[in-house]
Task: structure prediction
Amino acid sequence: MEFAELIKTPRVDGVVLRRPFLPTVEGTLCLTGHHLILSSRQDNTEELWLLHANIDAIEKRFVGSLGTIIVKCKDLRVIQLDIPGMEECLNIASSIEVLSTLDSVSLMYPLFYRPMFQVIEDGWKSFLPEDAFKDLESMTEEWRLSDVNKDYSVCSSYPPLVAVPKDVDDDTLRKAAAFRHGGRFPVLSYYHKKNGMVMMRSGQPLTGTNGRRCKEDEKLINATLRAGKRGYIIDTRTVSVAQQAKARGGGFESEANYPQWRRIHKAIERSSILQESLIKLVEACNDQSHSMDRWLSKLEASNWQTHVKEILTSACLAAQCIDREGASVLVHGTEGTDSTLQVTSLAQIILDPACRTIQGFQALVEREWLQAGHPFQQRCSQSAYSNSKPRCEAPVFLLFLDCVWQILRQFPCSFQFSQHFLVLLFEHTYASQFGTFMGNSASERSKLNLSQKTVSLWSWVNRPQEVERLSNPLYEANCLVIWPSVAPQSLLLWEGVFLRWKRSSRCLDEAYDEMVHIIQYNKELQNKVNNLRRQLAQLETEEAGEKED
Amino acid sequence: MEHIRTPKVENVRLIDRTAPRKAMVGTLYLSATHTIFVENNPETRRETWVLHSMVASVERPPTTPSGSHLVVHTKNFQVVQLLIPQERDAMDVQASLARLSQKYSELYCLSINPNANKEEREESWSFLDLQADYRRMGVPNNLWVSTPANSEYRVCDTYPSELFVPKSATPPVIVGSSKFRSRGRLPVLTYFHQDTLAAICRCSQPLSGFSARSQEDEQMLEAIMKSNPGSDYIYVVDTRPKLNAMANRAAGKGYENEDHYANIKLQFIGIENIHVMRNSQQKISWLVNLKTPSMGDFLWGLESSGWLKHIKAVLDAGVFIAKAVAEEGISVVVHCSDGWDRTAQACSVASVLLEPYYRTMKGLMLLIERDWVSFGHKFSHRYNHLEGDPKEVSPVIDQFLECVWQLSEQFPCAFEFNERFLVQLHRHVYSCQYGNFLGNSQKERRDMGLRERTHSLWPQLWKDRAQYANPLYRADHTQTQGMLRPNTTPYCFKMWKGMYNRMEKSSPPRQTPTDLLTAVREETQQLEEELTNHQEVAPGGTAQPGTKQGIQTRSRNAPNERCSLRPIYKFINISL
Result:
């Protein structure tokens, strides 16, 4: 299929663009296969380049022959295009509708995008499981890297290499995989260097209604316990949801078969409920009413903040079991690809200072989300405005980012990155020129050969100028475990995403610049003073030397 | 002293409400002014001090086998929970505290010998000069003049003795207008905007009832309009909900009839009355004391308290007035019922929005001194300094301070002070440690001889200004200039955690950008000094001994340096 067939009117003059916080621009609108472009063709006026993939929904309105298209983006921005001529407007609208909902992976923009910057380090090779394992090997010998999944036959959503207990052979893994949802047998997620405790993750056990058991599965997870020690299983579902799962062949680990494990149930909601929550929240933020009661009641009804609290609470629990109780933990929900990953990745943010660096956070996203098989493409194909029937969309990763932001806000000096990085990741999961978040698993990405055919987001992020932009000026490395407060009054609405296009951030940006300025000036002075001190010391030695002569 | 039945109780536990299993064991002392808890642990010996006048209530839940609990709630939303082994002791402490917290004669500020530091005391009261602030605004001038009408508080005993009125307002107009206003609170100047020549005037409601009118009062408003050359009307802002204002007509009060007053535009804002505000804040303080609320409980509680809605109403009132004055160049007359609560809020918020000076520490002090203290805001009644009518109590100035805080969240570089300054001001409104906020009017304070018997708070705050400074403030920053135009969409308002949830513990201790930046700026200053020192030593010259050790370079990457970078954090003594 050619894009040209889908674009009936590639160009319209005299289009007026209105968007938040920027002056109105009049210019020429162009549609290409992947972009909607508006240019005034004058210097100093910012052009609009909008990826079709970023468009979540459009609305058309007509007043006489003047048409208006309201474009609602997946990054929650809403822009307005006034297009003279009804036919042109209709043509543009229908083209946008088709181009923004193309299902064919082979037509996606990252496959066409050529970088305009010099790739210093190929992001596709920055975070290989082999390298991560080398770090682990330096700390412990109790784990090995298994290639049992090398052709993705044991578990289609796992990467080819996974870390498992050294004493457990591949055959046992295969059998355990057959007992876990989606073949997701328990694998290592995190090793806590301080006390050698570990966090594992998996899919739910397939116990079904008649309480099936699997010796190999029991053996596998018991192999991670020290003699005489008990571990914790954190089931991200409520007891009743976990019970109901039995009827569909799923279930949970019974006390009888897993006597060394204590099971704790949490209440992280299913994907469809999270999506509904996002839609309600965004609707509340867009409400024009000036009534405080209405705003607060809509905010409450969206339940978004409740989800944030629930996820953070579960992550704190996992971290507490490991760090405070000195116990190992297994985390799972149903599939083990959503709430499970929220918990395991946030627990690492709390426990492991390395995850709070720019590189470390990328490694975490790579390890705990991309390699761990979070279905990004399914979850992020629609955002809060879409009118299409939801399929598997859910803001699972966005909620994770929101939780990270909450911790960042509570510990503003403990993260090497600022919220810009989190916002950037949010944007790129929904629409991107990079291939990083394409596909739903390592296996899909490998089939599409993305590492050859697309540019990695990490290649872009890790350039010095971008690293600088994403850095947190207040950062001071610390090796502490940071315990966020999950009290409701400690958790705020993430303005940087949800109010980003609603209220100007100019004053906050100025404050940020001021902060950067204060810190940079301090560093400059430190350098100057240190230089002078050195010179002084040198002079003194010389002088002392002369005297001796 | 006769109120203290048990001056000392041993083996008391101070319970950390966020981690009930962690309690400090120590000794509880009751002094004439404070309840003091001293930890037994010889290494830390932490002390917790609670000023008696800050105590709002002392609850004693049913006795448990381990002893009696006492839960002390302070007026600034802190909670101290004690476990006392003997029930008798607990009852004694409770009874003593109940009396100590309500005794005027033992208010801290009055128990200090006022003549011990006579000069210092007198100096403390001359720290702020209200008249100088009027001069700073350019008043008096050829439009606004000082009137002797209220000397000896003749026309209005709740107003200051010095008043500024339109030049054209004759004494009969002043007196006549005063007679037509509730409690004699006639329209007078509170803020003059030099750029537009528009003014903010304040007063109480007119005694208009259904049909009464006063020629003098009408002339007074006319004179106010004429004092703003080039304008042909004024706004009369009634900060009450219109229904309340109408209801007042039945009692012979009410609002200005637009048919009688030429060239006024009446505007109702809808700030609720003191009773609604009192209940609203009680709900907030109940909400923050819930043990483990769900997010739903919390947001529902926040909504049903109405608190943020009220804060928004006060801020909206200020925005309306400020815009009228600065953008339209129209003078505004503000009133509510008596003109000492909502009017004070609306006028002072408008001043903060209009005038960068009021966003500095000294400016805010002056603003409080003018719009609140001098214009007869009833501090003793509103903040329950003595056991009085509970229906008179209301968090009026709390709301003003919170508006300033909400603004500082939107304009982080615009204020010279940080959140701690506002929290401290709030504390002292209740504490009675200084004489500034005792009594209900200037006349009452004069009659009580407070200037002779107490010290003023302002120089003390000024002395400690380093810890109240906002590191992001720069006098030449764009945010510091001109008028603030805040966004008052509901989602821009947050709950003020620093006021209502200060006690929350965190591990590791909560990091605040303010503290870090303050420390960095202090270090920068030291570096600047050292740099100057070094440069004074000409190249090739010998170094002065000592300059080398000026300060030690602190690596900002070592985790243990954190505390040394934070001189402001005081972990040891918690003074409530």
